[in-house]
Input
Amino acid sequence: GCAAAPEEGESGAESVDYKACAVSDEGSWNDKSFNEAAYAGLTKAEDELGVEIADAESASADDFEPNLSNMIDANCDIIFAVGFNLIDAVNAAAVANPDNHFVTIDGYVADESTTNLKPIIYSMNESSYLAGYLAAAYSTTKVIGTYGGLQIDAVTDFMTGYYYGAKAYETETGTPVTVLGWDPTAATGQFTDGFGDSEGAKNISAGQIASDADVIYPVAGGLFSATSEAINESGKDVVFLGVDQDVAVTSPEYADQVLTSVLKKMTDAVYDVIEEQVGGATFDATPYVGTLENGGTGLADFGTFDDKVSDEIKAKLEELTAGIIDGSIDPLS
Amino acid sequence: MTAVISTPVVHTVTEIPRKWKVSIVLGVLSVVAFVLFGLLGDAREALIVFSETSDAIVLPNVPVTSKVLCIVVGILLLALAAVSFWYTVGRRTVPMWLIIAFTILFLVSLVTFTGAGSKIPVVFLISGSIALATPVIFGSLAGVIGERVGVVNIAIEGQLLAGAFVSAVVASITDSLTLGLIAALVGGALVSMVLAAFSIKYLVDQIIVGVVLNALVIGITNFFYAAVLNDNSTETNFPGTLPFLPIPVLSDIPVIGAVLFDQRITTYIMFVLVPLVWFILFKTKIGLRIRAVGEHPLAADTVGINVNRTRFWTVSIAGTIAGLGGAALTLGSVGAFVREMSAGQGFIALACVILGRWNPWLAALAALLFGFSKNFRIFAGQTGADIPPDLIAMVPYLVTLVAVAGLVGRVVGPAAAGKPYVKQ
Amino acid sequence: MTDPTPDTLVKPALDPDDQAPSRWTVALRDIVSGSPLRTFLAIVLAFVVGAVLIVLTNEDFLESVGYIFSRPSDAISAAVSAVSEGYGALFRGSILNLEGNSFAQVVRPLTETLRLATPLIVAGLGIGLSFRVGMFNIGGQGQLLFGAGFAGFVSFQLHLPFPLHLLVAVIAGIGGAAAYGALVGFLKARTGANEVIVTIMLNYIAFYLLTYLMRTPVMQDPTAGGTPKTPAPDVSAQLPLLFGDSFALNWGFVLVIAATVFFWWLMERSTLGYRFRAVGLNPNAALTAGINVNRIYVVAMAISAGFVGIAGVTQALGRTSGFTPTVDAGIGFDAITVALLGGSSAGGVFLAGLLFGAMKAGGPSMQIADVPPELLGVVQGIIVLLIAAPPLVRAIFRLPSPSARTAGDRAKRRSAKKGGVK
Amino acid sequence: MKLELRGITKRFGALVANDHIDLTVEPGEIHCLLGENGAGKSTLMNVLYGLYRADEGEILLDDEPVRFHGPGDALAAGIGMVHQHFMLIPVFTVAENVMLGHEPTKGGVVLDLPAARQLVAEISQRFGFDIDPDDVVGDLPVGAQQRVEIIKALARDAKVLVLDEPTAVLTPQETDELMIIMKQLATAGTSIVFITHKLREVKEVADRITVMRLGKVVATASPSSSTTELASLMVGRDVDLTVDKNPPTLGAESFVVAGLTVLDSTGQRLLDDVTFTIREGEILAIAGVQGNGQTELTEAILGLRSGVKGSVTLDGKELVGASVRDSLDAGIGFVPEDRKKDGLVAEFSVAENLMLDRSVGEPFAKGMNIRFDYLEEFAQKSIKEFDIRTQGSDTLAGRLSGGNQQKVVLARELSRELRLLIASQPTRGLDVGSIEFVHERIVATRDAGIPVLIVSTELDEVLGLADRIAVMYRGKIVGIVDADASRAQLGEMMAGIHA
Ligand SMILES: Nc1ncnc2c1ncn2[C@@H]1O[C@H](COP(=O)(O)OP(=O)(O)OP(=O)(O)O)[C@@H](O)[C@H]1O
Ligand SMILES: Nc1ncnc2c1ncn2[C@@H]1O[C@H](COP(=O)(O)OP(=O)(O)OP(=O)(O)O)[C@@H](O)[C@H]1O
Ligand SMILES: [Mg+2]
Ligand SMILES: [Mg+2]
Output
């Protein structure tokens, strides 16, 4: 403890008088996935735009409302409610505080007349459809798996797209493909006890591997690390697909198992909204829907697997992308 | 001091009341298995998979018709239930082997029924159950030892959590899994020592200290998780996992090899600890003293055994075992620590202590049953059996409840468990 | 002294091996006799430990420790500002927000404290009641879920006019929870099953059952899209706000005040409470005196759970939207600590509930001040641990031992000098 | 070995249980320690044994001062003790109990059970005990447990053996056997401290006698002193333990027990076909060595037990199968044998305890509300009438002395309209004054024309109170005799030999 004292008065980017705040769903910002991606938009704005930020994690659903009202009291210019579960709370807050601006990620506006609440939502089934096709094509056993962190629409949307993508491969090639962990017609599948249940995630993955799955799609936030552990334990040649962020980049320690990631580009969306506001734009409550078309969602590149994915498949994925964009392919059937 | 000696008079036993409960439960279950899984069962084929193609010795997969196998097993179950009725009619207690054999056969039937039309990966079913049971077994061993010496340990949950936390953090920071394991021992012991000190020295009710300690450990780990681990998780919460240590030759035996001889050090320790704890408790000098202290501390005191010191150290050492259970959750399974990751397994361990009648072997079996019910949820989810997943998730707890209320009921534990010993 | 031989005889009603009285006697005496001074000191001490944790995890402080010898003032000021910011935020979030722009903003934290204390108090009363009958009810979570489930079901499935609908929903919630509690009491009385384990298992069962129902038309919000969530309660079944739109505090708080008074009457003034206490303190004597101990267990667990059920009711009906299976928000477990801290008495639990409610209310603003609100969990744990161990607090603060100090003993000594009590 | 205690003082709070006690025991001597209940005998021996720490004084063994920090030290120094309340672990076998604390081992860790069995067998054989090392102690009769305790002491080669009231649980025959063993041991050089308050025993074996009263040594006597002399030394005044009572005025046979049998959960008969009747205005006393079914009998009558067969009728009303509440409502007053465990709620005030069995309805409640004013009035009346020495009606019952606790129970039980009084060990642990008071109240109840059932292990009390005496042995009534039966006859009956 004999180091020299630092000089006073260092500070970051020049600051602007704008405060952006965020309230998380149940869970922490550092979930290596959903929350983290949204939060990164905030910190990016802090670094690059010099805005002030504040955040609150919600330990339970009971915290949503106090967290939001504390943000209002803390004089936030814009408040991001990150997560589907915050819908009710943020809708109520928006109605009660017409002068504040709110953004809901994964949520929707309950009351048509609300003009201070902007939803940011994603059509994740589109990119997941590509992922499913890719997984089926990549798999040598033609058994692939998926599981969710909770059985909610925001999660099963991914899984359904994945399922039909794989089935598209099946119909196209005539090779039967088994998808473990989700059956959209019966709406039954495998889910952990929430996004923190790494033990459950590991065992579900192990079970799928034991049933010969060699590509797994964990739609469960940061729980891919548990899937990775299950892969290690099995000693088999199994890969998984990341979600939300490009896992091979954000968590490079897993890169050699990440075939690709299904991106949900919340960082950009959050940053863009703040940037617009700081730039003086009037608040625009029209929903933002991330699609393949506008690049809000999509597949990351193949990283270390680039040479293992044939050009043929890559071309096919392009073709599917175009098909989804022009509406000729429905990723939900 | 007006304690009353009231000794029941011993007479020749005339009429032992018949206790029908066990037989009736077995009877009902055997009929369920025979009719529901067998007669009304699924006629599709289930493929029983014993080995991976990559195994040294590959056993062939066995296709069976689910319904047929269930009928066969159902008949065996009916036979066992009949034997249990025969025991009851003869006023004898149904032996433990029968209950265990019945349980195993029933599970075979259940799995075969559920696996109709798909694969039954035997190794996954067994080793997954063991993996899920491991922390619970460690916890219940700690509980058994604690109650045997007279200290009720409700804080198993906290000990598991503390062990999980410190092992992940220490292993992560020092980059040494060995140090992580050692830290887990220390972490579990520390929680135990607080429990011991408060209940032995300050005479606070053991259940209350236990409950409060659980809350405190949850609070502390949550706090450090949020304040420290969260921000630089790659340095502080990325320990990796213990390597698998296959035992040469033995690990090549089909099924058994993978289940018993290709495991992590934590699992091997668990395999060794169950018999070891049993041996120490029932075959050694220190074990005799531990049990004496838990049964009748004053009597132990009168033969020169230091009751409170014995309690303190025994409970503390039991804490190291629970701490290892915590390490089994992190280093022995998924690596990183997650908030409140013990998720009630300490309480399940407590139930296993009672279900296992304060015997390490039986407690471990109870924990295995719990592990199996958790694993079954995964298996059933995968075979696409159309039982609502929320209801399947409920099964382990329902099984424990029924077992505690239905089968065990009023069992007698160590007489002095839960009572402080005060010396004049 | 323990008997040299065990009483292997089975009495009809009582578990012969359930030596609860002695254990409970000690524990309850400890809890119930908590002196205000000791409680206060325990709280102070716990906050001091909390302050240490704040400092030790504060980045500015840790940075300045690096050069503590060249400029110690940095470390000190970092420490002081971290603690004062953290606890200042706690105060701001739970008592008064002096930075507020309007009166409503200034006092809202206080009303938030009351709002969050509402379920804690009443669940704490429920758990406390079970303690006083000598049962360890860890099933707060499950009972609360049952209370919320039943109240919720009535609130959106039945459609009745305002006060009636609310009334029916409240009664349904209490009744649902009470039935669940009665089951625990029944299992204990009938099979001798350990209630700690039974209640814990029932917590899980209640959770999964409710989750399941929230995915079926019975309780599902059709707009929630697969998420297990209930529809919003009808307006006629919502607990109305107490002080208008600016404050979230609702009539649930008044309900809880009434419950507290009822609890006091029940335990201190009524014959039923008398029997509860007798069974809790010495079930053998109660049994010998003709009290049906098994029935008391069932009734007491039902009432205990009924109180916890009120917490479920306020959670379910004190909102304008539907709820999810996590509606218990940890209250079921916090209630145990509240009951312990409050000595299982009406007044004590009420105050303890307010304290914990304040901590909950202050959490978010602490978070904004960059202090993890998880800290409060540590503080709460330490408070209760210290309360549970009076000798420890006395040792830390060098308080005199109470044995020489109670009024009774002083009187005894005086009369002993005069030659005994005649 | 020679044992000497000098100036031992032991206080429990304000109570001085031992006040500067001096005591010397020569090698090979049988030294009797005589004293009433509560005189401080056990306390003194527990100090000697290292269980209690003395506040003052010292202990010398063979003239060397020793300090014991716990029983371990005392045992190592050659002191053995058979405790008044047995220190055996019921779920352990005899061998395990005997070896506990000085276990023979293989390699210092693993128990050597055969060696322990061998040791037990050897000692049993030497003294003619009939003890199987593999029996579980909890299953043994009390007499055999007593012998296990002695084996425990002998297995450690005790040079000084303390026997704390070993005869309380023995039949007269078993007592005689024990005395022979004591003499054997003394001849072999063991110093023995023998505690009892039965004068006959003292006179038979003692070499020297020390009498204690109220924590002090009041005299040293020789066995040639007369019984009355010893008794008055012990009690501190001339004793007259006879109870003043008139001949009974007998009424109807209102209480009938016929073929009462109690089974425990394992099917053992704890009570075997017990039949007797009590008439109005009559006291029937059940005599017998403790643990022969007396507890089960009273509990079965009250409805506290399951597994009861046969019939119990009071005023023609069948009570088998009725709840405790029903039995109380039928008019049974019940004084349990263990007042702390079954009679009182220690943390309740005196007043609260007085309403324990009438917590519903009149007179103590109105609706659901307790009538605190009535309760207070009732408590004051009871305190006065029963001479309960308490600071007030709000004093916690646990803070009263044993005798006053008993008076609280009596006040409660006698305040109801009774049709039968059952009192178990009504004077256990009470001082002479309280004993007289309790006896008076019991006799008064009888004289009011109520049948009374007394259970007592004190033969003096039985002989003093009873109009008729029933003797129980192993769950059976061996015989019912008149109150003028001889001690010898009763003794034989208590040992199971029919009258
Ligand atoms: N552990 C204790 N705490 C408080 N008081 C005690 C304790 N043990 C004994 N006493 C009190 O000390 C006194 C002497 O008790 P002690 O047991 O030595 O009597 P005793 O002579 O052995 O009587 P008895 O013949 O009934 O066995 C009694 O008043 C008793 O109540
Ligand atoms: N737990 C206690 N707390 C305070 N005072 C007590 C306690 N127990 C006993 N006392 C007091 O100590 C004194 C001695 O009690 P103890 O029970 O030894 O009386 P005793 O001599 O055995 O009387 P009795 O013959 O009536 O049984 C009494 O005055 C009693 O009130
Ligand atoms: Mg004594
Ligand atoms: Mg006394």
In short: Residues 77 and 394 of chain B are 25 Å apart (CA to CA). The radius of gyration of chain B is 23 Å. Chain B has two domains: 20-117, 123-368.
